[in-house]
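Tokens in:
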């Protein structure tokens, strides 16, 4: 579906690079068939071993020879006029280095769930601070953007150390140097998969947010005071939410092991660092109250606090 959606464009791509990350389910044979059917248009890059999403995408970007590049993940789809409207937006915004549009979320069967920017207008132009703070509709950044290849190469492509938020981290670096333009039409469909990488445990989300924030900490601290506070408070909210969700994940199930309590306590203290709200008493109680059986072994008759 992803490949067919790119081939069905009203403005055909100048070249299509299909990168496969070591699949063993027949995908590589399928890709070779497309390459044979479209010689000179489609080029296949088939990795024998899994590279991970950032390295896999980087190899595709690096193989592209056009002035502008975009991407379509294997479970997503372009709508037929995407490239046509992208090119029109580029022509009407000659100073732009990045062009993005609205998009639909779809379920596994391809049914539309909602529209990303239906009830909000995303920021455009110089959006570096907005990207740092993730101030976009639904707390989600733009997707399927078209980028000048020279800018993409200049910032060093995706950072492989980030498995989940490599796209956000790259967009931080892109928008630090480049300007954006926006097409308000929905031009792509993003498939919301229940087992996708974005559904990984909240501890992993917290860890990547923390590491991205640390990577860009010098630039964040160099912002004017109002922008620094804006970015810091926004990232605090994300990290506080991920941390407290991680605590609740650790506290599910009975009986709670001391290891689970220790990790939950560590995560709770981390969320306190970013919280702009009173402590959550129920969570604190569940972490620190000694269970009934342990109280009995300790010889206590009343609730004791570890």
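Residues out:
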């Amino acid at each position: 579906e992803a490949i067919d959606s790119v081939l069905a464009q009203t403005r055909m791509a100048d070249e299509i690079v299909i990168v496969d990350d070591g699949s063993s389910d027949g995908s590589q044979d399928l890709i070779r068939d497309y390459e044979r059917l479209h010689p000179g248009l489609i080029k296949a890059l088939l990795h024998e071993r899994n590279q991970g999403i950032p390295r896999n995408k980087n190899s595709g970007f690096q193989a592209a020879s056009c002035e502008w590049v975009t991407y379509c993940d294997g479970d997503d789809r372009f709508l037929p006029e995407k490239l046509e409207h992208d090119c029109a937006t580029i022509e009407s915004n000659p100073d732009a280095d990045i062009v993005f549009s609205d998009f639909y979320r779809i379920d596994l069967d391809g049914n539309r769930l909602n529209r990303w920017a239906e009830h909000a207008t995303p920021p455009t132009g110089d959006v570096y601070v907005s990207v740092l703070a993730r101030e976009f509709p639904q707390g989600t950044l733009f997707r399927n953007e078209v980028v000048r290849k020279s800018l993409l190469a200049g910032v060093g492509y995706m950072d492989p150390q980030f498995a989940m938020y490599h796209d956000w981290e790259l967009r931080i670096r892109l928008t630090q140097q480049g300007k954006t333009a926006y097409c308000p039409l929905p031009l792509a469909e993003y498939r919301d998969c229940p087992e996708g990488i974005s559904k990984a445990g909240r501890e992993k989300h917290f860890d990547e947010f923390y590491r991205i924030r640390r990577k860009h900490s010098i630039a964040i601290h160099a912002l004017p005071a109002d922008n620094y506070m804006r970015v810091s408070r926004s990232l605090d909210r994300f990290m506080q939410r991920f941390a407290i969700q991680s605590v609740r994940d650790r506290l599910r199930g009975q009986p709670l092991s001391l290891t689970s309590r220790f990790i939950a306590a560590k995560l709770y203290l981390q969320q306190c660092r970013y919280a702009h709200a009173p402590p959550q008493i129920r969570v604190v109680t569940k972490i620190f109250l000694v269970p009934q059986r342990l109280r009995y072994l300790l010889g206590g008759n009343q609730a004791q606090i570890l």
